[in-house]
Amino acid sequence: MPDRNTKLRPATIAAQGTGRVAAPYREIVPPIHVSTTYERGADGAYPGGRVYSRADNPSYDQAEALIASLEGAAAAMLFASGQAAAAALFQSLTPGDAVLAPRSMYWALRKWLLEYASPWGLAVEFYENSSIDDLAQKARTARPRLIWIETPANPTWDITDIAAATEIARETGATVAVDSTSATPVLTHPIELGAHIVMHSATKYLNGHSDVIAGALATVHDDELWQRIRYVRGGGGAVLGPFETWLLLRGMRTLHLRVAAACANAQAIAEYFHGHSELTHVLYPGLASHPGHAVAARQMRGGFGGMMSLRLRGGEDAAKAFAARLQVFKRATSLGSVESLAEHRASVEGPGTTCPADLVRLSIGIEHVDDLIGDIEQALS
Ligand SMILES: *Cc1c(COP(=O)(O)O)cnc(C)c1O
Question: What's the pLDDT band for 166 if we cut at 50, 70, 90?
Answer without folding.
Answer: very high
